[in-house]
Amino acid sequence: MPRRRDPYDRMMFLIFGVTPRERVLTVVAFVCEHCGTHATQHVIESASRLSSFFIPLLALSRRYFVVCSNCGGTTALTKDQAMHGVEWASHHREVS
Ligand SMILES: [Zn+2]
To answer: Is pTM beyond 0.85 here?
Structure first.
């Protein structure tokens, strides 16, 4: 009589994960809407990435925001606003 095969004999392990990643796109200075102080503001891109075996496969979501260096207050941005900030900052650096 043939031995019945154990269904777990050929079990495959796949490790999937969602990794959040934040990076500072640029640093600009303007009056913060939270504390009213003229302070440096970090424009940050936050992306959630789907990974398999710790290798990033694709970005699931992206969001943009500025963080005030004085009070830590955050303000959500659209992608266009974030890219405009990056463009503005790079142009300003060339001039000065
Ligand atoms: Zn502030």
So the answer is: no
The CA 80 to ligand 1 mean position distance, Å, reads: 22
Within a domain: residue 5? no
Residue 27 is part of which domain span? 17-95
Ligand 1: centre distance to CA 14 (Å): 44
Q: What is the pLDDT of residue 96?
A: 47
Q: How many domains does the structure of the chain reveal?
A: 1
Q: Which pairs with CB-CB distance under 8 Å and at least 24 residues apart come from 19-27? A: 19/48, 19/49, 19/51, 19/56, 20/46, 20/47, 20/48, 20/49, 21/46, 21/47, 21/48, 21/49, 22/46, 22/47, 25/64, 25/82, 25/85, 25/86, 26/85, 26/86, 26/89, 26/90, 27/89
